[in-house]
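Model it.
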Amino acid sequence: MRTSISRAQNLRALIDREARRAGFDAVAVTAPNAIPLAPARLAEFVADGFQGSMGWIAETLERRGEPTALWPEVRSIIVLAMNYGPDHDPRAVLAKPGCGAISVYAQNRDYHDVMKGRLKEIAGKIVARSGSDVKVFVDTAPVMEKPLAEAAGLGWQGKHTNLVSRAHGSWLFLGTIFTT
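Modeled.
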């Protein structure tokens, strides 16, 4: 018993260390069944038409609501957050006539590519240490990252639907590593 606890603690320390090394600002772990109310809330969101032109949300409603529907073997979900807030006031550009304003998240390399590569590095270390199987997701699979992040304790989902963190505000990209 003591050995399995220390193994789990060592693995968690590895995950925390590698997440920080890879540039993530927050990391937490939750269970796949930790978001029982999220599917109904998402269904209501879609029924009210709030998804707009994002038809894929309605098409993947069932898979989104249950992580085990996406991967039946998942036992734990590691949720990682990367702060993309700028060092300057992003509204300053609005005072410059004739200057285009580009959303802050789009001013650098595609976050999907950046995060996926970093998540894969961390996932590789998890596999090497634990022998677990892993799957990495960054906003392109039917994963409810924000409710999972909330369940893991990284923050809460605000009325603007973004995750809000006491430490980092709402300038966060989210990614997940599903593990067996």
